[in-house]
Task: structure prediction
Amino acid sequence: MPADLFPGFTSHWIDLPDGRFFARAGGREDAPPLVLLHGFPQTHACWHRIAPALARTHRVVCLDLKGYGWSAAPKGDPAHEAYSKRRMGREVVAVMERMGHVRFGLIGHDRGARVGYRLALDEPGRIDRLALLDILPTVSQWQKMDREPDAYPHWRFLAQPAPTPEQEIGRAPIPYYEDLLRLWTGDGTLDAFSPGALDLYRQSWNVPERIHASCEDYRAGAGPDRAADEADIAQARRLAGPVLVLVADRFVGRNGLDPVRQAWTGTFAPEDTTFEIVPSGHFLAEENPGATLPILERFLAA
Result:
């Protein structure tokens, strides 16, 4: 780990039934706990531009989700439950409990946000504040793709049965993932990413077990994750507040806040959800930390 990415943070290895999980922690040990969950195809390093500032007021835990970074990457199962957001949410709870935190705030980006809202729906007593960065609910995403088959092609590609996507990605793993990063940034380049963070992402991309894990993540999205959302909608379940939905104006928020607001209020968001938009591509915490950080700080302090 490049020393300058997380100054003052300590490294932690936590043993769980699916293997060892890696986290970095910073801030006073008696400060309010806050877990940061990264998205695809990144690692906990995506938070390096805002985590030290958040650690001034919180005990910040930056976790590598299962299958990513330095955390365990076990083989998937036929039902894709191992990489379901429900299972991954339980693992977040287990990690935080091992680190001494039963209730905590959660900021999630991309796949990490999907883990976050699933955890908050399943165990509302665990989460005191929930910030979701640049996503729509999983069920809403699939409904959009049902209407628009060409939307978000990587979702369908990665969710194909094994080993088709694993083999195709494996022929040139780094170009595949880097092309996605470029596609989702605001300026179409990798300039927003620090060399140290990119090095860590590339390490993960070159590991066959982690390529498989990222595919299983998306297979779970098409199967148990969508089913869990549909079941909760049928029961009219809602997230407990406070909730912040923060989107990028050049990605999920490209059509403004109204479609985002409609997707969330029509599914899981409580009436008092805060919606904000940031000038950025998909990677808000790295592309525009100057705008993203103050919004998160205000939300956490409210």
